[in-house]
Amino acid sequence: MGQYLIYLALIIIIPIWAQMRVKKTYKRYSKVRNESNMTGAEVARKILDDNGLSNVQVEEVKGMLSDHYDPRSKVVRLSSGNYHEPSAAAQAVAAHEVGHAIQDAEAYAFLRFRHALVPVASFGSNASIFLIIAGAFFSQVLLGVGIAFFALAVLFQFVTLPVEFNASSRAMNQLVSTGIIRNNEERQTKKVLNAAAWTYVASALVALLELVRLVLLFTGMNED
């Protein structure tokens, strides 16, 4: 019972901690004006053009921290605050999303692998819930299949990690090489990027813990 409570605490606390950290860091640096006086949209446009990606558009999207790169439409979408504001947070987030656009243009291996996994991981995540519940009551075979499907979703989470860290690394390199950031802004930018990265690490860790629990449940049933 004690071990289960520890497990339950971990899967609840880890993602909450990661989300609180990124929101706190983002809120802090969204109030810090960047030295270039460039909005997130302007930062994204400059880096894209400097890398020969004039075909990639930059658009505003509703929501907070809803920023993303759409590889199908070739569009970098920035949340309203990041799109319009010349803040330290906005330039970091914009550069990160452009990092994904550069990955796409260069056919970055992990990004291609993640794209290939999307339909499989999505199906696996949805189907695994029903199979695991049914398997726990009726059939070890169904439970095993459900765990295998869930493992695909976990794999997707871990493939996402190098994609996100690489995009952040590209963001830093681009911001420095283009002269958009200078002096103490490098430290600020790294804090924003690192805080965001921890949300992906937390998600992957929680998914792994759940997979381990399910595997232990399955092996325990077999022993019985």
UniProtKB/TrEMBL annotation:
InterPro entries: Zn_peptidase_2. GO terms for biological process: proteolysis. GO terms for molecular function: peptidase activity. Signal peptide: none annotated. The keyword Iron-sulfur does not apply. The keyword Manganese does not apply. It comes from the Bacteria. Keywords: Hydrolase, Membrane, Protease, Transmembrane, Transmembrane helix. Pfam families: Zn_peptidase_2. The chain crosses the membrane at residues 6-22, 116-137, 143-163, 197-218. This is Zn-dependent protease.
